[in-house]
Design brief:
Elements: E1 23-27, H1 28-45, E2 49-54, H2 61-69, E3 73-76, H3 79-87, E4 95-97, H4 104-113, E5 116-119, H5 122-135, E6 139-144, E7 169-175, H6 185-206, E8 212-214, H7 225-236, E9 244-247, H8 251-254, E10 258-270, E11 273-278, E12 294-297, E13 304-309, E14 318-325, E15 332-336, E16 355-360, E17 363-366, H9 376-379
Parallel strand pairs: 1-16, 2-3, 2-9, 3-4, 4-5, 5-6, 6-7, 7-8, 8-9, 11-13
Antiparallel strand pairs: 1-10, 10-11, 10-15, 12-15, 13-14, 16-17
Helix pairs in contact: 1-2, 1-7, 4-5, 6-7
This protein binds pyridoxal-5'-phosphate.
């Protein structure tokens, strides 16, 4: 072989070498930090507050187990998620249910197990009435409000008026979570204040006594909690009762806990835009409208505008657009804050799953088998039995 035939050091190997493939590490210490941060704030701000981790944000067994060990209850939406809760011994008042598709069987189990539930429609409320009458007792429920008159989630405040007079179902909670609220904190605060206005009207006009106020999710990890929560806590004191305060953080708890590393396989320029194509893309880094992935390059000599994308043949497979970074082919990039709505929404598309790892005081260990052909919860060590109690 002549030297011209020899492989060049700069060529990127494409042999699927597992050791150089993408990897995501979940850090137990960061989960602990986030829970403690929230608990410290709540314990100072309000007498009776409860954290329900929004399970859909990440199902990975060590992650959820750690959050439960740190005292979090679980916010859930399906029998499958209930099976995860059961596997971890979480039950009763440590569970709050949301979701627009709760059928009669699911609602019966919720009622019989003494779990909290926020109804999402008049129809679900009527199912609870049916169950309460069949059981010959009053059933308690919260109401998820729709305050915008848009979208599919929640009950419009005027729709719930008649329900407040129903003797068999007692409205004891109010809930607001706007799925697409994104990162706009003013919007978030405004929605919760309007929810409290509705609750105060219920107290005044329908004699409702609230047992809880549920702020939903949407807590932001990158700002001071007080910036987001102080105005709500202040207004809570205007209620007649002193209800429990529920929060349902997902991204706040698990987002910062995961860090991915990925390799830049190709650099290309199209229409003046420079692209870095990596081996980790939207099959893991799901581009939800609220997702903003922080990309870091170890190389910091000459930053220039570059967009970072994954390896898939569809245009939504973009991790970051027009960032100022110094990136060359072969570099490894670090993607911060990617623990929320990634492993739980991950698909097998392209059959290039990242290796998932768990860092704790015991060191770094693999998490389950990131096998795209298997059901996620089963792959992570749960045995979801969605059929029975
Ligand atoms: C009802 C409900 N609560 C809480 C959350 C968690 O939201 P986040 O991850 O933004 O905190 C979600 C997620 O969409 C949700 O649907």
């Amino acid at each position: 072989m002549t030297s011209a035939d020899a492989p060049q050091a700069s060529l990127i190997e494409s042999d699927g070498d597992a050791a150089s493939g993408p990897e995501v590490v979940y850090d137990a210490a960061v989960l602990r930090r986030q829970v403690q941060r929230l608990r410290r704030y709540l314990d100072r701000a309000y007498p009776d507050s409860h954290v329900f981790y929004a399970l859909k944000a990440c199902y990975l067994a060590p992650v959820v187990r750690r959050l439960v060990d740190l005292g979090c209850g679980l916010e859930i939406m399906s029998s499958g998620e209930r099976a995860v809760a059961a596997a971890l011994g979480v039950e009763g008042e440590r569970i709050v249910w949301n979701g627009p598709a709760l059928d009669v069987t699911t609602l019966e189990r919720i009622v019989d197990r003494g779990e909290w539930v926020n109804v999402d429609s008049r129809s679900v409320f009527d199912r609870l009435v049916h169950i309460a009458r069949a059981r010959g007792r009053t059933v308690e429920a919260g109401v998820r409000l729709n305050l915008s008159g848009e979208g599919k989630l929640g009950v419009a405040p005027d729709e719930i008026g008649a329900c407040l007079d129903e003797p068999s179902v007692s409205i004891v909670g109010v809930h607001f979570h706007h799925g697409a609220a994104g990162h706009d904190v003013d919007d978030w605060v405004d929605g919760r204040l309007r929810m409290l206005d509705v609750a105060m009207r219920w107290e005044r006009e329908a004699g409702v006594t609230l047992r809880y106020v549920d702020l939903g999710g949407g807590l932001q990890a990158r700002i001071e909690l007080g910036e987001q929560l102080d105005p709500i806590i202040e207004r809570l004191w205007d209620l007649r009762s002193v209800p429990r305060l529920f929060v349902e953080p997902g991204a706040f708890l698990v987002g910062p806990a995961a860090t991915a590393t990925t390799r830049v396989v190709t650099i290309k320029t199209v229409g003046g835009r420079r692209w870095a194509i990596t081996d980790l893309g939207a099959s893991f880094l799901v581009p939800l409208d609220r997702a903003r992935f922080e990309v870091e390059s170890a190389r910091q000599n000459e930053p220039g505008s570059v967009s970072v994308a994954g390896p898939f043949c569809y245009e939504a497979d973009v991790i970051a657009r027009d960032r100022s970074l110094d990136i060359q082919e072969g570099d490894r990039l670090t993607i911060h804050d990617c623990g929320a709505y990634t492993a739980s929404m991950m698909s097998g598309f392209g059959a290039v799953p990242p290796r998932l790892r768990w860092r704790s005081v015991r060191g770094v260990e693999p998490i389950g088998a990131a096998d795209p052909a298997r059901h996620w919860m089963a792959a992570q060590g749960y045995e979801p039995d969605c059929s029975g109690p």
